[in-house]
Design goal:
The complex is a heterodimer of chains A (113) and B (108).
Chain A (H helix, E strand, L loop, with lengths): L4 E3 L2 E4 L5 E6 L6 E8 L3 E9 L2 E5 L6 E5 L5 E5 L8 E8 L8 E2 L3 E5 L1
Chain B lengths: L3 E4 L2 E5 L4 E7 L3 E9 L5 E7 L2 E5 L2 E6 L4 E6 L8 E9 L4 E3 L3 E6 L1
Parallel strand pairs in B: 2-11
Antiparallel strand pairs in B: 1-3, 3-8, 4-5, 4-9, 6-7, 7-8, 9-10, 9-11
Classes of the chains: A mainly beta (113), B mainly beta (108).
Chain lengths: 113, 108
């Protein structure tokens, strides 16, 4: 089976812009979770989608949102970008919910200038 | 206060040594995960535990629910084990909490 893919791999945006990142899970996986990784805060949980519904959410402002499509592909959107949003954004898919083993994608490196 | 604490933060070992990384957590959990992250960012899930002990090859993970503590052991360490090891817990609040990671370097 193909692994989790994320596009784009690298992205440079300007403060105030918005960005959309995409994640394609492993075939058959219905759960997609999103994570932010920064040198200062480490890994942090953003949210989880399961069967097109947001099931769980971390402590991030409303500027961070996502959605999941009927084929389980997921997108994450960040509006009104801030410098502090510069990070590696990882998605992971799971055959069950986020409770279960996570299969991570390679990540999207977002730089906000 | 961090919900998940790992120790040590950095670890250097000679090839062949037995390595232990510790993880303590302060929240109620449904499961604990050990993750491995190599330079470049890719993360691999090593173990998911809710009780007891699991073994994959040279890696062993244990968890003590009563003491809120888990350990990751690497037997006969090898330079390819050099990576950051991250402990994560799935809490009763239905979200992940992550440790800050242990950076392991194994010297040939």
């Amino acid at each position: 089976k193909a692994g989790v893919t994320q596009t784009p791999r690298y992205l440079i945006k300007t403060r105030g812009q918005q960005v959309t990142l995409s994640c394609s899970p492993i075939s058959g996986h219905r759960s997609v979770s999103w994570y932010q990784q920064t040198p200062g805060q480490g890994l942090q949980f953003l949210f989880e989608y399961f069967s097109e519904t947001q099931r769980n959410k971390g402590n991030f402002p409303g500027r961070f949102s996502g959605r999941q499509f009927s084929n389980s592909r997921s997108e994450m959107n960040v509006s009104t970008l801030e410098l502090g949003d510069s990070a590696l954004y990882l998605c992971a898919s799971s055959p069950g919910t986020a409770f279960y083993e996570q299969y991570f994608g390679p990540g999207t490196r977002l730089t906000v200038t | 206060k961090n919900e998940v604490e790992q120790s040590p933060q950095n670890l250097t070992a000679q090839e062949g040594e037995f390595i232990t990384i510790n993880c303590s957590y302060s929240v109620g959990i449904s499961a604990l995960h050990w993750l491995q992250q190599h330079p470049g960012g890719g993360i691999v899930s090593l173990f998911m535990l809710s009780s007891g002990k699991k073994k994959h090859g040279r890696l062993i993970a244990t968890i003590n629910i009563q003491e809120k503590h888990s350990s990751l052991h690497i037997t006969a360490s090898h330079p390819r084990d050099s990576a950051v090891y991250i402990c994560a817990v799935w809490g009763w609040s239905n979200q992940f909490y992550f440790g800050t990671g242990t950076s392991l370097t194994v010297i040939p």
